[in-house]
Design brief:
By secondary structure, this protein is of the alpha+beta class. It has 4 helices and 3 strands. A 3-stranded mixed β-sheet has the order 1-2-3.
Length: 121
Amino acid sequence: MGATINPQDVAHGLYENNPLAELIEGFCLAPAAGGDLESRPVVHVQLRRAARLTAVEADRLAKACQHGVLRQLATGSRDCSGTTCEDPSAHEIAIALHPYGTGPFADASSIRNTYPRHGDG
């Protein structure tokens, strides 16, 4: 959709008011091509090392994360707040849960855990 998604907005959406947030170790963002050749964001969520979820629990966590991220982007991101009115498919932010150290988190050296603030050099 051309909108910029800030990692800080995603973090707020994943952790704030999420009763299952204690299961989350970290996250990363990646684009995924849709069937219409549009790129859609995927939030890859790494579970904590000790987290063992049933399918129902995993679904509940993924839905809580998706709801929180969409809420945060709609209220906190000027770049994203108007896109849902233009295109309802903007609500297609996928959440992919991964056990600790798997998926995109298998090579931890490629994931940034902190982001420099303006002026931090």
